[in-house]
Amino acid sequence: MPQPYRPSPLSRTHARQAARRAADGLADVLHPLLVLGRGAPRLLARCRDWWRRTPGERRGPTLFAVAACGVLLWLLPYGPALATLCLLAATAWYGRDGASASAAAGAKAGERERARLQALYEALVPCLAPAGDPSPEPLYVPGGTWEQAFEEYAFRDGRISELLLRYPAWFPDGHLTERLRVEQLLAAKTGRGREYRFCWDQESNLLEMTALEPLPTDIPAQPFATAPGETVLGFTDGYEVRGTVPVRLLDPHASPRHLPPVLWRTGHRPAEPHLLAVGLPGAGTSTLLRSLALQALRDGDVLFVDGEGGGEFAGFAARRGVLGVETTLPGALDALEWAARETERRLTAAGRARQRGEDPPAGARRPLWVLVDRPAALSHLARVHGATDPQELLRTPLRHGRAAGVTVVVAEQFGSDEELADPVLACTRARVVLGAVSPQEAGTVLGAAPQTGPPRDAPRGRGFARLGCGPVLRLQVPVTPDPLDGTAPEAARTAVRELLPESVRAPAPSASAAEGQVPVTEGQVPVTGAPQAT
Ligand SMILES: Nc1ncnc2c1ncn2[C@@H]1O[C@H](COP(=O)(O)OP(=O)(O)OP(=O)(O)O)[C@@H](O)[C@H]1O
Predict the structure, then answer these.
(1) In this predicted model, what pLDDT tens digit does every residue of 118-172 receive, in sequence order?
(2) Cα dist. 136→25, 118, 139, 147 in Å?
(3) Would the pTM of this model clear 0.80, i.e. be above it?
(4) 496 in ligand 1 pocket by Cβ < 6 Å?
(5) Ligand 1 within 6 A of 284 CB?
(6) Residues 268 and 173 in one domain
(7) What is the ipTM of this complex?
(8) What is the extent of the structural domain holding 180?
């Protein structure tokens, strides 16, 4: 049966490019007409404004002077032609690109929009117009109008969606608190419940505000199309990252979308080999760990240490590639001691192989992920019982994990993050913050404050990510619930179940596939069954 014709994305792109080229060509040909068409309403608007500003007693003489000039031009040889030429020149001048943007915008703005812009301007006056402003012509003055400060704007659904405003040169735009004051005011006055991106152009004293579309919250766990060594932390805005991955949505009837992922590179040469995620309670850090574990299990082994002991990772127990799910202090200590020894063993094995001019053995190459949820709780217990601090045991995997193919991910809650040990803070250069935290709080974890702040009703799994010294990206973690959590949507739990490796009780698929894996069930200490542990 012949298949229905489905245009490929490439041909659509070509069609779009062809249409764009045709439109560009047409715009070039019609450019003079477009300039005149743009200039005429601007000129009219200026004349109307000027007429409105002219006091009543001067309107009569002005009209008389204009009429006299008109008659004179009419009588002069070539007068009408000269007048028409002057009018065309003036129209073209006002129609040029960037000419009198605010005046043009003002002409387009309706009464309600003008009122909104004026209200916003007046709200900004106390922030941007202090007593004793030294500028001869202040941009922000009580009783001033928005046209003098707002260069560009756009409305969407009756609310301001974009704004480019000029701020005074004296404004301390290098101070985070001063910036945040203006940003919070703008966000509050332009409509709550939305997220905004603020770009401060310090060279030109311009602030650009853009209302952002919400990030999609219906992306289930799935095998993402990534290169080896790449892990999807979540999804972000299209303008921040290059490239997209095809994504299936929770709704089985919805067509797949191409979304921009936040990709974290792990393996032997990454700049950010370990990750620290800090979140508000219930914001989704355990979910992030589950999402990472499902991706890591495609070609590696995973060891869970759950400091809270809430059974968040019980669904992973007794699965192939899962070396352990430790929920108690003794179990966690044994597991982390093993992870430290395993890191050393891999380093030694890889070093010896290199001396012989060979590749490291497969057992030293297979990625190992150590996922630690709430280590501060374990450290507290260890202090009480006089045991070794589990975070200290992470020192070796954190310091040498990169060369040994060991990746450490630590998740902690705000409030307990001060109890994170130095090695954890020093070696985790990939950072994630989850929950509706203030930009300052996010900045303490990420090392730079985000240009946006999450709305008060931030969905679960929403936050920010920063890889090394890169930009702060908005992040939405895929829906990856505990498959045993009855409150989570069934479709999302099924997606997780489908990705979980087989149970260790199922017959091994083949000897080579099981190489380097020794399954350990929940509560078992990985050290006893650790592969090639020395
Ligand atoms: N990205 C997400 N999309 C949808 N639901 C989520 C997401 N992240 C978390 N949730 C839901 O929010 C609830 C809390 O998630 P999770 O247990 O991961 O949070 P947490 O930060 O570990 O909190 P706590 O440490 O207090 O348990 C769960 O019901 C989970 O299914």
Answers:
(1) 999 999 998 888 777 677 778 898 888 898 899 999 988 888 999 999 998 888 8
(2) 46, 22, 10, 18
(3) no
(4) no
(5) yes
(6) no
(7) 0.97
(8) 104-212
